[in-house]
């Protein structure tokens, strides 16, 4: 029944000036935290540390500090200390409160909008400290400035009291201690030690002369006495800690990235120079690898999506290598130029620019937008790299030969790829014969189970939901793509089947929007072979389908290890600990459980000496427990109930938040160099939990 005319008018009238909500102070941050820190998951949680650290690092970049300490404290607190100038505490002329309070409680307030506060900074919008304050249940800021020690505390961004002078001091610096608000970070407020260390190590490479201490004090139960020192590290701290200081800058960072790789040329290219008011620092080296690693930074802020500085670098690199190759007769007149794709293969490079006025695309600063960075980067790199090639002819020849090899491989790969995809198109995009496809054509609800072997494939096909679940069994171990080019890779029947099943092509024709399943579930056996197959598949996705990983489409199935039967009921356990908990819940006391009957000899005092009576006592036995070695051992109904049913199963999503470290691990474990892999195995062999 249609609404009456007067009802419609009334509804329209209800939207007026009073409907407009005005958020004051830091309310917008708590209302929409994702706008300021990207997400309220683990990445956003760690972003809080980066925001406070960046303020300390900016002090060092401008020559006012040379030391920063980051401490993970008990009860979820983080403490960041620097020996910079200290946040000003005088009364701000506009806000009429302390400058410290203004910075901590007002969006778009800071010393980085112009003037003489900072020549170069990562901060742009003046929201870093205030955002962290707003998203913390408790924040405490201490300032050692011009001989006086000041302090102010806040709850969820609101001050508890005015700035208070605590006493005198002989130090200069700022201490920010904060505890993330669990109301905001509902996924948890536990910081990952490796994530913190990796990020801060990277920052130490980027700022020459800066010492960074990182300390994990979360399990410390004593009282920290800071009398006489800003730094816990100076107190002979015995908690897990790491310190970073690098004189080599980006050159050292390239060495770190290539730690487990084989260099193509001996000398690492390096330049640091200013052009057009932009500081440019670049280091690069080619390695015997198929992938490309370019780390981009603007004012020491990581730019995972690149930006104008990377555009300038890539364009110049391709042009310079082709020019040198033609000038020296390596490329003949009849030869075609190397493409950008060719000269990027095997490249490890770090490009860092520093600008006074900087423009990022978004608060998370993933991409640089400053146009002056493009021409400055191109100018500095062109002059220096031309000289490098001329002065190092052997290195230049190896670099160009690497590009020529990539050119030949690219042509072969294109032919192989076109053959695979064209064959699919000619056959009406014929899907692999092994694939049991689902009925749904909606990728958002469709799932592809990649299972190990025909036996598991048979059980999975019988136990699946045909409408939304597809099954692709793989025969044995797939090709290790870390060691194979695209043409050889597509010669593998197993990989070709997987590429066709996903339906999104591969290489330069890959289209994320054409992925046929938004859940690609790796389901392998719980043994060494299963773990190896899983690693090979993850290598394949990481090297050739990284956007699929970034989109969150790849999962790992968690089939149970045990089935326990008791009183005609079945219970499933996914670990030894869970199995023991099932026993306990069924009334079995683990310390009393035995596998066999025990016969005891009991003396009867009424009998004569030596005359003994044997009494047999039975201790309870374990309920029937089946240990699954592989998915193929499960009946279809068991596989469905435990591993495939969305309402009961357990899936682990695969993410690549620490992409640089992941790249190093894949190179070490799956690459051609045996030495690093052998060393890794020898180091961690005793920690391995193998079920052979």
Description:
By secondary structure, the chain is of the alpha+beta class. The protein folds into 3 domains: 27-244, Heat Shock Protein 90, CATH 3.30.565.10; 250-410, 2-Layer Sandwich (Ribosomal Protein S5, domain 2); 431-559 and 651-687, Rossmann fold, CATH 3.40.50. The chain has 21 helices and 24 strands. Strands 1, 2, 3, 4, 5, 6, 7, 8 and 9 form a 9-stranded mixed sheet that branches. Strands 10-11-14-12-13 form a 5-stranded mixed sheet, sandwiched between helices. Strands 16-15-17-18-24 form a 5-stranded mixed sheet, sandwiched between helices. α13 (453-463) links the parallel β15 (447-452) and β16 (469-474). α4 packs antiparallel against α6. The chain is globular and about 75 Å long.
Tell me briefly what this model is.
The protein is α+β, with helices and mostly antiparallel strands and 692 residues long.
SSE blueprint and pairings:
Blueprint: H1 5-13, H2 27-31, H3 34-37, H4 42-61, E1 67-72, E2 78-82, H5 99-105, H6 128-134, E3 136-145, E4 148-155, E5 158-159, E6 164-168, E7 173-180, H7 193-206, E8 211-216, E9 241-244, H8 250-257, E10 269-275, E11 278-286, E12 293-298, E13 301-302, H9 308-327, H10 340-344, E14 347-354, H11 372-391, H12 393-426, E15 447-452, H13 453-463, E16 469-474, H14 486-489, H15 493-502, E17 519-523, H16 528-544, H17 546-550, E18 554-557, E19 562-566, E20 569-573, H18 576-585, E21 598-602, E22 613-617, E23 625-627, H19 636-644, E24 651-653, H20 659-670, H21 674-684
Parallel strand pairs: 1-8, 12-14, 15-16, 15-17, 17-18
Antiparallel strand pairs: 1-2, 2-7, 3-4, 3-7, 4-5, 4-6, 8-9, 10-11, 11-14, 12-13, 18-24, 19-20, 19-23, 21-22
Helix pairs in contact: 4-6, 4-7, 9-11, 9-12, 13-19
